[in-house]
Design brief:
The complex is a heterodimer of chains A (137) and B (404). Chain A is built from five helices and three strands, in the order H-E-E-E-H-H-H-H. With 137 residues, chain A is of the alpha+beta class. In chain A, strands 1-2-3 form a three-stranded antiparallel sheet. Chain A is globular, with a radius of gyration of 14 Å. With 404 residues, chain B is α/β, with parallel strands linked by helices. The chains are: A alpha+beta (137), B alpha/beta (404). Chain A binds chain B through residues 3, 11, 14, 17, 19, 31-42, 59-67, 101-105, 108-109, 112, 116, 135, 137, and chain B through 307-309, 311-312, 315-316, 326-331, 333, 335, 345-347, 350, 382-388, 396, 401-404.
């Protein structure tokens, strides 16, 4: 299967690969997927006192589309409030990266990773966890 | 100057040898006749080409030219062998023994026959990919009509002990079929010495053209027959109707003749290159060879690079044409069933890359492949959360993953 140019660009020049200190109270970490399924994403956000995401990092074990989806997610997260970030829908990622149907699960995983990172941050900071949509998988 | 991309997927298909192409060309236009046209020179010329090819092919596997049934390829040969024996020997029994690491052309054919009343035993393989001979012997019943075990595996290259398998089959009076698609032309395959009754093979895995294969069907000791699966003009001694693909068959013959000459030399050269590739890549941490390394085709290496995913890895190795046991699609999140049969965890199966060397692979290409693979594995590991966790000493099996 041929990858779209955008997937190839994110894959070759992944944005924001790295690790934030998960012990810090203003860092939220989401770890989703499973090794036996062939993809695991770890997405982290650093949030300021106004609930604005100032930094985002990822590491992903998976195919090119999974790597590109998480790379794109970190780009989109920066500068957004944690409420705005919740509005990122997997289909936005599908559209932006022109993912074929067989790769839609990669975008779903990225959305799950965003929500799970936000929840981690919320719980750490005394907020209620938002209800995650039933897994799409 | 090295030409990119480099083709290292010779188990999928091989480039045609220029000598094969040259042999085929006259049969597209000059000698275009139908080999079944017995009453004019056009037919005779085509038939002559086919007859000569039968001899060339027969010599390579040590059988008579009368024992070669031409087909469209190994998938058809496998279908014809298994379905054909099942129908022909229905009075004798309905039990077939095969193994879990066989090609889909065998497994799906068997699954099809199960719906028609066949009983199939799927032998598990050992961790190195070899079948357990005792298990094979114990699986045989008075209803067993066929054992079908592949010669050399397409994913890991493991070569099964055909002589021992045939000795067991013979002693119980059971026919033995082998899918030798990956083995013929690469290592010595001799239907007499190996005691094989039916053997599937194809031209395009041995530097011949696509779309032509053959089924060897033993004519004596014992005389084997298969029920035709294609009805029509009664070609190929009634076992496979359809106008013969004359240029393809001529090319197949030439490919066999060349293999006869070059096989030993090729195998020697390729195994040295393969071992060098493998040894260099095993310098990487957490890299493992899949399958038995002592009983293996000379040109195949299947390696798992733990904590990186095969499909993602291949994308970083875009100048190398290789294949992976990972299948990251929503249609099939399942990694290679062959690797899983060896007892590999799904994550290791997802991390595998198959390198398939061939007659035209050069030392320079292997140097490049080593560098490129090492770089790609390192790049992907730097991006892998699993690698980071491994390096921190976290036991990944103890993590509760959000399965999806």
């Amino acid at each position: 299967m041929a990858y779209s140019e955008k997937v190839i660009d994110h894959y070759n020049n992944p944005r924001n690969v790295g690790t934030l200190d998960k012990a810090k109270s203003n860092v939220g970490t989401g770890l989703v997927g499973a090794p036996e399924c062939g993809d695991v994403m770890r997405l982290q956000i650093e949030v300021d006192q106004n609930n604005i995401i100032t930094d985002a990092k990822f590491k992903t074990f998976g195919c090119g589309s999974a790597i590109a989806s998480s790379s794109l997610a970190t780009e989109w997260l920066k500068g957004k409030s944690i409420d705005q970030a919740l509005e990122i829908d997997n289909m936005d990622i599908v559209e932006e990266l022109a993912l074929p149907p067989v790769k839609i699960h990669c975008s779903v995983l990225a959305e799950d990773a965003i929500k799970s990172a936000i929840n981690d941050y919320r719980v750490k900071n005394g907020m209620e966890a938002i209800e995650l949509p039933k897994s799409h998988h | 100057m090295i030409q990119l991309p480099i083709y290292l997927d010779n188990n999928a298909t091989t480039p045609m040898d220029p000598r094969v192409l040259e042999a085929m060309l006259p049969y597209f236009n000059e000698k275009f006749g139908n080999a079944a046209s017995r009453n004019h020179p056009f037919g005779w010329a085509a038939e002559e080409g086919v007859d000569y090819a039968r001899e060339q092919i027969g010599k390579l596997i040590n059988c008579s030219e009368k024992e070669i049934i031409f087909t469209s390829g190994a998938t058809e040969s496998n279908n014809l062998a298994i379905k054909g024996v099942f129908e022909m020997y229905a009075a004798k029994g309905n039990h077939i023994i095969t193994a879990t690491t066989e090609h889909k052309a065998i497994l799906d054919t068997c699954a099809h026959l199960e719906k028609l009343g066949a009983k199939i035993t799927y032998l598990q393989v050992k961790a190195d990919g070899l079948i357990d001979l005792e298990e094979l012997a114990n699986a045989i019943t008075d209803q067993t009509i066929l054992i079908s075990i592949m010669y050399g595996n397409n994913e890991i290259g493991v070569v099964q002990p055909m002589k021992e398998i045939s000795a067991i089959a013979r002693s119980k009076g059971v026919l033995l079929h082998t899918d030798a698609t990956q083995a013929v032309g690469k290592i010595q395959v001799d239907v007499e010495a190996d005691g094989i009754d039916l053997l599937s093979f194809t031209a395009h895995k041995m530097y011949g053209p696509k779309g032509v294969g053959a089924l060897y069907v033993r004519r004596k000791n014992p005389r084997v027959k298969v029920t035709a699966q294609m009805d029509g003009g009664g070609h190929e001694r009634g076992m496979r109707s359809g106008t013969l693909n004359v240029p393809g068959i001529v090319g197949f013959g030439k490919a066999c003749e060349i293999a006869m000459q070059d096989m030993e030399k090729d195998a020697q050269r390729l195994s040295v290159m393969r071992d060098r590739l493998e040894k260099s890549l095993l310098d990487l941490e957490e890299a493992y060879v899949n399958g038995n390394t002592a009983h293996r085709l000379p040109h195949v290496a299947n390696i798992s690079f733990k904590y990186v995913e095969g499909e993602g890895l291949m994308m970083a190795m875009k100048d190398l044409a290789v294949s992976s046991g990972s299948a990251c699609t929503s249609a099939s999140l399942e990694p290679s069933y062959v690797l899983k049969s060896l007892g590999l965890n799904d994550d290791l199966a997802h991390s595998s890359i198959r390198f398939g060397l061939g007659r035209f692979t050069t030392d320079e290409e292997i140097d490049y492949a080593i560098e490129c693979t090492k770089k790609a594995v390192t790049k992907l590991r730097d991006m892998s959360p699993l690698w980071e966790m491994f390096k921190e000493g976290i036991d990944l099996d103890s993590v509760e993953w959000a399965e999806h």
